[in-house]
């Protein structure tokens, strides 16, 4: 009997009223194309997909999670969550906290991510330059890759961020509201961007027309000067410039941004840090692929 995934778009009842990490976005629904078609696709292994999505619920700053927490975050039935956490614990990817019965990521999970991060020469190539720029800007410089309808940090350099803005490697930010996401979208082909827009429309529904106008303004900025500015949209008082990074052969696109937490930093971002990011992106592009 085929398994029907929960509807996408609006949060499930279990999601409503729950506090999310600032870096988190919805899980299974965030894939956008996980729909009824996959329920009849014999090649698609739902048990594997659900187990991996369960692991994605653990993000920096969220702490240990119980089965009820995981059910609320993923929309999966609690009995399914219980079986998944049991299996993942037996395999060593989760560990159960004796005092609370909740679960935390275990060190063997690092083995899954290490080959990915270790195989990215762009991280090593730009690390020092990112650190230098972060110090000048008194903020953060991040390198990110697309992940569903979000951008995921794959490298970052930061100087004294506010406590509620401590995003780490693996953290995710909304694509449509971040300079990283808008810069990445600017580098897509018209066809690929139209596909992304269709997924955004399904996710954001009535909010999408206003968001689309701001996304397209960011894309126009990238075309005009190589970078886009986002001021206070993702979080109050946080402003950033973002640039797309294309591989030499054009098959991969990443994005980089420079965030400033200083009041009145918009002019410096536009006049100084944006152009510096554009130059840095030109150096990194040939290293990707």
TrEMBL record:
SUPFAM superfamilies cross-referenced by the UniProt entry: GAF domain-like, Winged helix' DNA-binding domain
A Pfam family hit: HTH_IclR
Annotated HTH iclR-type domain residues: 45-107
InterPro entries: GAF-like_dom_sf, HTH_MetabolicPath_Reg, Tscrpt_reg_IclR_C, Tscrpt_reg_IclR_N, WH-like_DNA-bd_sf, WH_DNA-bd_sf
PROSITE patterns from the UniProt entry: HTH_ICLR, ICLR_ED
Keywords of this entry: DNA-binding, Transcription, Transcription regulation
Location of region: Disordered: 1-23
Residue stretches making up the IclR-ED domain: 108-289
PANTHER family: HELIX-TURN-HELIX TRANSCRIPTIONAL REGULATOR, ICLR FAMILY (PTHR30136), TRANSCRIPTIONAL REGULATORY PROTEIN (PTHR30136:SF33)
UniProt-recorded name of the protein: IclR family transcriptional regulator
């Amino acid at each position: 009997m085929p398994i029907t995934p929960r509807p996408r778009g609006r949060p499930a009842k279990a999601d409503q009223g729950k506090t999310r990490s600032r870096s988190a976005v919805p899980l299974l629904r965030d894939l956008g194309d996980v729909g009824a078609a996959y329920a009849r696709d014999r090649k698609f292994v739902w048990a594997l997909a659900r187990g991996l999505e369960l692991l994605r619920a653990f993000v920096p700053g969220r702490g240990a999670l119980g089965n009820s927490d995981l059910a609320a975050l993923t929309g999966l039935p609690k009995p399914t969550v219980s079986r998944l956490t049991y299996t993942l614990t037996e395999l060593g990817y989760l560990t159960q906290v004796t005092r609370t019965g909740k679960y935390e990521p275990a060190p063997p999970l690092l083995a899954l991510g290490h080959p990915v991060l270790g195989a990215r020469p762009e991280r090593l190539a730009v690390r020092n330059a990112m650190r230098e720029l972060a110090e000048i800007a008194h903020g953060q410089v991040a390198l990110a890759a697309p992940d569903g309808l979000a951008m995921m940090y794959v490298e970052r350099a930061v100087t004294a961020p506010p406590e509620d803005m401590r995003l780490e490697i693996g953290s995710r930010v909304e694509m449509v509201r971040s300079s990283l996401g808008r810069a990445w979208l600017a580098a897509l082909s018209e066809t690929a961007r139209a596909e992304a827009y269709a997924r955004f429309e399904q996710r954001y529904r009535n909010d999408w027309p206003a968001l689309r106008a701001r996304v397209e303004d960011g894309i126009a900025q990238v075309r005009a000067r190589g970078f886009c500015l986002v001021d206070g949209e993702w979080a109050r008082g946080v402003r950033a410039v973002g640039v797309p990074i294309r591989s030499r052969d054009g098959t991969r696109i990443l994005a980089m941004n420079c965030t400033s937490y200083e009041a009145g930093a918009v002019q410096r971002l536009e006049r100084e840090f944006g152009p510096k990011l554009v130059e840095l992106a030109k150096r990194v592009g040939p290293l990707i692929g």
